[in-house]
Recover the amino acids of this structure.
């Protein structure tokens, strides 16, 4: 067993045990244990479980992203301060001041990637399980908590004519299989499109005007195209089962993000303005930045000094 396999061993056992449990429960409910749809539903339930457990991490990500957006004006001032200073000491001083800003707000540029980083060990563990399924089935071996019978069942199950362990890259040349190509390409398109839409909606509706310029915005734009491109290329080497898992994960993430954007948008964003428009139509008070501005206007109005009191004018006395 290699070093990487040793690190992934606990995650492999966890993923395979949960997958086996869901498959057993679905079989007990009357579904065909050897059907690819049963294994597909087991994978989807695995996604639901992992994403549910990651909700606290997702909430932390949202808070960190908003803190980063609020910091953009201060970061821009810091960049202007050291704009023409290229020496090493100035660069170090700028980096230290920037780190202090992040520390004071309790955030960092990497917090936005936290849910994905937490998911990656489980993803790699599932990838190893599914890639090894064909070989383990031939050798009648188990993988993690999945028994030899379950591995054999999984390896031979099909989803829309493609086996769960099939890989697109293995069926493009001499071993061309039209079913595998069609299923894999559709899943890759769904996976990449949902990922792009998720990032695009975040940038388009849930970022304040201040956050749409500067280094943070540039990072978001790079991620908008880089991540889908990486997964599109990687999809050629993903088993069908992994493509199902990652597509389901993206659809869950899109739904979760749309819910957050609609109910609790970033202050100063387009989504917040749309939320306040809906609240105004229902006769409800505004929330977020608009509510704060309304309070400030009301407070300023109350503190506004009143004009001098008009003195009474004496009536002229009548001449006798």
């Amino acid at each position: 067993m290699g070093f990487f396999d040793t690190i992934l061993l606990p995650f492999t056992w966890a993923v395979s045990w949960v997958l086996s449990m869901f498959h057993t429960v679905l079989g007990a409910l009357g579904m065909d244990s050897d059907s690819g749809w049963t294994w597909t539903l087991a994978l989807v339930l695995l996604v639901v479980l992992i994403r549910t457990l990651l909700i606290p991490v997702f909430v932390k990500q949202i808070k960190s992203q908003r803190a980063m957006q609020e910091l953009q004006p201060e970061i821009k001032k810091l960049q202007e301060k050291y704009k023409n200073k290229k020496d090493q000491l100035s660069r170090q001083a700028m980096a230290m001041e920037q780190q202090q800003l992040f520390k004071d707000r309790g955030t960092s540029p990497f917090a936005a990637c936290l849910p994905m980083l937490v998911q990656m060990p489980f993803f790699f563990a599932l990838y190893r399980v599914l890639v090894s399924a064909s070989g383990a089935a031939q050798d009648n071996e188990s993988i993690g908590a999945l028994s030899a019978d379950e591995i054999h069942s999984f390896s031979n199950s099909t989803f829309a004519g493609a086996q769960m362990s099939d890989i697109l890259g293995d069926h493009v040349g001499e071993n061309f299989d039209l079913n595998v190509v069609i299923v894999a390409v559709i899943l890759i398109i769904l996976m990449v499109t949902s990922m792009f839409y998720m990032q695009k909606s975040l940038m388009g509706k849930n970022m304040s005007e201040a956050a749409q310029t500067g280094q943070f915005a540039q990072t978001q734009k790079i991620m908008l195209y880089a991540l889908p491109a990486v997964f599109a290329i990687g999809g050629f080497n993903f088993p069908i089962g992994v493509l199902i898992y990652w597509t389901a994960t993206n659809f869950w993430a899109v739904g979760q993000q749309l819910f957050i954007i609609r109910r609790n948008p970033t202050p100063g964003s387009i989504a917040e303005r749309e939320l306040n428009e809906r609240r105004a139509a229902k006769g409800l008070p505004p929330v977020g930045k608009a509510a704060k501005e309304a309070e400030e206007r009301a407070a300023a109005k109350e503190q506004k000094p009143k004009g001098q009191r008009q003195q009474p004018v004496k009536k002229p006395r009548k001449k006798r």
Q: What stands out?
A: The two ends are 123 Å apart (CA to CA). The first strand starts at residue 158 and ends at 159.
